[in-house]
Amino acid sequence: VTSVNWCRKATSQERSIQVDCSSSPVRFRLARLVRMKLLLKIAVLTAISLCLFQLANSQSSKNARGQGQQSLSEKVQQLLDMNTKRPVLRFNGNKFRDFVKSAPRNYSIIVMFTAMAPARQCVICRHAHDEYTIVANSYRYSQTYSNKLFFAMVDFDEGSDVFQMLRLNTAPVFIHFPPKGKPKPADTMDIQRVGVSAEVIGKWIQERTDIQIRIFRPPNYSATVAILMLSLFVGGFLYLRRNNLDFLYNKQMWALIAVVFCFAMVSGQMWNHIRSPPFVHKSQNGGIAYIHGSSQGQLVIETYIVMFLNAMIVLGMVLLTEAGWQNDHRKSKVTAIVGLFLVVVFFSLILSIFRSKAQGYPYSFLFK
């Protein structure tokens, strides 16, 4: 009985202890403390992760900026090294993409797209290349030279993929690639209107880059030699005919010289001397154009054509005038018909040329 009672007392005491533990707030405080420690650990780990991610991101951006600056400096240095060897850089497809199309780039670059091979039969390309080289040399050895402007050239046989990339189907073409952004329509030089002389190219570059280039042409002594040779020839001829100088009083000779001088001035020879236009150029359909399509420009061969047409018109007027002073009626009639034919046909031709250059001119005679 005593043992049974003792067991009952012990059991009742244990139950009371269990009841007391379950009803006390200690258990809840322990659980709350564990949860708080767990949340604190999660917060610390999250903060450390965010800090590490931000540090890695900033470091990678710094490395990227450093690599970009290094790449830009390397590109500029390579361009300067190539520019010391030649003023006009020759680019193929890979170099064009590396130095012109790819970023970063803080410099302007003028690119001439041409076809210099004789098989391409680009007559104007050689003349345009010579004028372009004069501009590049003038800038290379001027005080305004810097690493903000470079001159390059892409030949069709060396970079046909570049022509396809830019959708170019003619040559020569001058395009300015600015430091930022894509070229605008004004960044393509309108050689059909202004020509390809060095002075015109320099003016166009100044408009696009605000860099003024003073053109220095290499000395050309051909005109001086020609004048000296002509002076020696005339002086020698007058010396040999010193005893008979009656021909100096020949009115027809002086009239012919005056008319030839007028032909030269009216046809545009002085304009050619000032602007240095190309001899011929390619038309839009790929053929050779002998007449400039704009009233603001002309070609060298065009001046000779106009000179010939004016000469034929004057010859026709002279024949018409002489026909009235002849005594032979039959000869006078033939002379008048030939003179009238010359005036009508060649005046119609020169009127047709003027009509093609002055867009909108409504009048024509025999030819349109």
UniProtKB/TrEMBL annotation:
Compartment(s) of residence: Endoplasmic reticulum membrane
Key words, A-Z: Disulfide bond, Endoplasmic reticulum, Magnesium, Membrane, Signal, Transmembrane, Transmembrane helix, Transport
A GO cellular component entry from the record: oligosaccharyltransferase complex
Membrane topology: Multi-pass membrane protein
GO terms under biological process: magnesium ion transport; protein N-linked glycosylation via asparagine
Pathway(s) of this molecule: Protein modification
SUPFAM superfamilies in the cross-refs: Thioredoxin-like
Highest taxon of the lineage: Eukaryota
The keyword Translocase is annotated on this UniProt entry: no
InterPro entries: OligosaccharylTrfase_OST3/OST6, Thioredoxin-like_sf
Job of this protein: Subunit of the oligosaccharyl transferase (OST) complex that catalyzes the initial transfer of a defined glycan (Glc(3)Man(9)GlcNAc(2) in eukaryotes) from the lipid carrier dolichol-pyrophosphate to an asparagine residue within an Asn-X-Ser/Thr consensus motif in nascent polypeptide chains, the first step in protein N-glycosylation. N-glycosylation occurs cotranslationally and the complex associates with the Sec61 complex at the channel-forming translocon complex that mediates protein translocation across the endoplasmic reticulum (ER). All subunits are required for a maximal enzyme activity.
Family: Belongs to the OST3/OST6 family.
Protein name, per record: Magnesium transporter protein 1
